[in-house]
């Protein structure tokens, strides 16, 4: 009797045995994803096994909860992973954090508890990959610190009274001088200059700049955008439209320091601290080839070799000075140059009238033809999509718009799922499995307004060939949702390398695995009608264009039972519009919905929206 009592008392606090089982499962996943060795003995390093960037857990939240138990040496968030690491200065603190947080603190996705494990070490390779993008600014970016004095800063701040200003942007307050920057066309209208020019109080900046940086060639700006960011607000990654503004661009920062992220097509990522009272010169590569953006959060954490530095944000006001461009941009950074793309990719503008034809020939008919083969190769549901579906309460109605072979149709527990697709062959696959499915197009969902608790649109919207149609598809998804309903959208990313890591789409490349430099890329194009061409993409390589045809090879005899025309080896070309970073977010920002989560997963850009 005494013995039994002892055993009960020795059981670790807070954890019942079913959770222990769960914990072992999570530890196993952590090791598999990162190579870190789990241990039952306390160390300075803690792995969060079941939540990471992919689940919407941010460095900020990890810091907020773990720093209560002592000084943190390092937080390691891993792009594309559902786990992360925290290291403390000493074991006492990490043990305290472990005991208070493990299985108890609900910061995992959908407010579930996090499960922790001590790890022997954080693998060196992970740390290095994470540190790589922090230190140096990209080419062409110069930060001049303490460019103005405290009293000048106060004078600049006094130029705008943001409390009185109305604004159509939800995330921050904006005011324009000289010309208005129109966010719907991403450009300025040269024929409509504003009455209010750049305040003359700004003139001191140009005199000072000539002294501080005499080798810089510039024309005095004629356009000014003033942004006011409260802590927690940010701006999606973007490139200032090439054809709208000259090079360089200047940013004066007032009120607070902030971390700005610069990213290019090669997966290079620089997180830079832009100090209060600093003056930034953005020119050349940093102006043309890099996107820049500010992550919405209340504090910035900078990780350097020296350790962790935390900056709490205050209200920041930025003055962005630009010279409006008259004519085309002639830069050499073609992938981000609207002037170049407009003249060289005729399809860019000409798709309008051809949209339905492109989609009929290169989406709907193709799926009809490859249905069986497609279905055979699309078994494995993506874990984060399944988690989203499982987050709905018993009795919820969830609509899978573009359900394909129905691989997500039985993922929910005690919820009612309806699927929608344009392919009769794929719908037949669903019907064989007794799923509830409808024939229909994502632009005209055959359901009433405000009926669904949730919706998913997985790998669908990238098949729509104009921006207007992609926009309508999101509007249609929100239309069928009840207020408070949530939708998950996945679209294929142009960036198949994210934070220096290749997507599984690239990793599956057998031919090019060894010599990346010599990617066997074709320059083939398909002429749609006179003057409108779509480039044909080489599978398993990085995307060179946003509007592409992606080949699907159907091997001999693989499609015989579904379609008589496919009993020989045949290549089908599927149309895709691959999304650039920030593009989906920007599109979603125009609706009356709340962006709950935005992330990169399996080579896709993904968002979760909540209808207001
Ligand atoms: Zn350009």
Q: Would you give an account of this structure?
A:
GO terms for molecular function: metal ion binding; S-adenosylmethionine-dependent methyltransferase activity; tRNA (5-carboxymethyluridine(34)-5-O)-methyltransferase activity; tRNA binding. Its EC number is 2.1.1.229. It is found in: Cytoplasm; Nucleus. It holds the Pfam family 2OG-FeII_Oxy_2. Keywords: Cytoplasm, Iron, Metal-binding, Methyltransferase, Multifunctional enzyme, Nucleus, RNA-binding, S-adenosyl-L-methionine, Transferase, Zinc. The N and C termini lie far apart (59 Å). The strands form nine sheets. The chain has a seven-stranded mixed sheet with strand order 22-21-20-23-24-32-31. The protein is globular and about 75 Å long. The chain folds into three domains: 2-131, RRM (RNA recognition motif) domain (Alpha-Beta Plaits, 2-Layer Sandwich), CATH 3.30.70.330; 141-328, Jelly Rolls (Sandwich), CATH 2.60.120; 354-611, Rossmann fold, CATH 3.40.50.150. By secondary structure, it is α+β, with helices and mostly antiparallel strands. The longest helix has 31 residues, at 347-377. Strand 8 and strand 9 form a beta hairpin. It contains 15 helices and 32 strands. Zinc ion is lined by residues 242, 288, 329, 331, 333, 337, 339.
């Amino acid at each position: 009797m005494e013995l039994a009592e002892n055993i009960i008392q020795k059981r670790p606090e807070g954890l019942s045995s079913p959770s222990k089982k769960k914990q072992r499962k999570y530890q196993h996943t952590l090791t598999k994803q990162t190579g870190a060795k789990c241990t039952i003995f306390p160390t300075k390093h803690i792995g969060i096994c079941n939540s990471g960037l992919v689940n919407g857990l941010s460095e900020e939240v990890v810091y907020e909860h773990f720093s209560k138990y002592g000084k943190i040496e390092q937080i390691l968030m891993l792009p594309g992973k559902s786990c992360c690491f925290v290291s403390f200065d000493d074991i006492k603190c990490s043990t305290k954090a472990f005991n208070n947080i493990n299985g108890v603190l609900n910061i995992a996705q959908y407010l579930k508890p996090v499960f922790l494990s001590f790890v022997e070490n954080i693998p060196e390779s992970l740390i290095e990959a994470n540190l790589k993008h922090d230190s140096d600014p990209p080419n062409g970016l110069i930060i001049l610190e303490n460019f103005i004095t405290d009293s000048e800063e106060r004078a600049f701040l006094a130029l705008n009274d943001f409390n009185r200003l109305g604004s159509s942007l939800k995330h921050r307050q904006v005011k324009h001088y000289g010309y208005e920057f129109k966010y719907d066309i991403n450009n300025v209208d040269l024929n409509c200059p504003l009455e209010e020019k750049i305040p003359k109080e700004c003139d001191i900046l140009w005199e000072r700049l000539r002294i501080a940086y005499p080798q810089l060639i510039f024309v005095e700006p004629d356009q000014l955008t003033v942004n006011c960011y409260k802590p927690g607000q940010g701006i999606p990654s973007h490139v200032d439209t090439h054809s709208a503004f000259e090079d360089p661009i200047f940013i004066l920062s007032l009120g607070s320091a902030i971390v700005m992220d610069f990213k290019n097509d090669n997966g290079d990522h620089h997180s830079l601290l832009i100090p209060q009272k600093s003056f930034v010169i953005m020119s050349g590569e940093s102006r043309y080839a890099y996107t820049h953006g500010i992550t919405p959060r209340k504090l910035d954490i900078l990780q350097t070799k020296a350790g962790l530095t935390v900056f709490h944000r205050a209200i920041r006001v930025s003055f962005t000075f630009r010279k409006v461009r008259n004519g085309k941009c002639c830069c050499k950074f073609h992938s981000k140059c609207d002037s170049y793309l407009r003249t060289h990719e005729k399809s860019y503008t000409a798709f309008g009238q051809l949209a339905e034809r492109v989609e009929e020939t290169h989406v709907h008919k193709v799926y009809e033809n490859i249905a069986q083969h497609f279905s055979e190769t699309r078994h494995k549901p993506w874990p984060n999509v399944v988690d989203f579906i499982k987050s709905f309460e018993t009795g919820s109605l969830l609509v899978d718009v573009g359900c394909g072979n129905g691989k997500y149709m039985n993922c929910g527990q005690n919820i009612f799922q309806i699927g929608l697709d344009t392919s009769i062959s794929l719908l037949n696959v669903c019907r064989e499995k007794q799923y509830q499915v409808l024939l229909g197009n994502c632009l005209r969902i055959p359901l009433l307004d405000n009926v669904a608790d949730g919706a998913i649109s997985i790998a669908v919207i990238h098949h729509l060939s104009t921006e207007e149609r992609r926009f309508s598809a999101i509007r249609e998804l929100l239309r069928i949702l009840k207020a408070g309903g949530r939708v998950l959208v996945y679209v294929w990313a142009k960036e198949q390398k994210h934070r220096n890591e290749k997507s599984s789409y690239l990793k599956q490349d057998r031919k090019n695995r060894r010599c990346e430099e010599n990617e066997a890329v074709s320059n083939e194009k398909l002429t749609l009608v006179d003057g409108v061409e779509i480039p044909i993409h080489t599978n398993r390589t990085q995307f060179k264009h946003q509007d592409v045809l992606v080949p699907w090879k159907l091997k001999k005899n693989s499609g015989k039972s579904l379609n008589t025309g496919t009993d020989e080896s045949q290549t089908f070309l599927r149309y895709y519009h691959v999304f650039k970073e920030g593009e989906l977010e920007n599109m979603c920002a125009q609706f009356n919905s709340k962006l709950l989560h935005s992330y990169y997963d399996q080579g896709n850009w993904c968002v979760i929206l909540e209808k207001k």
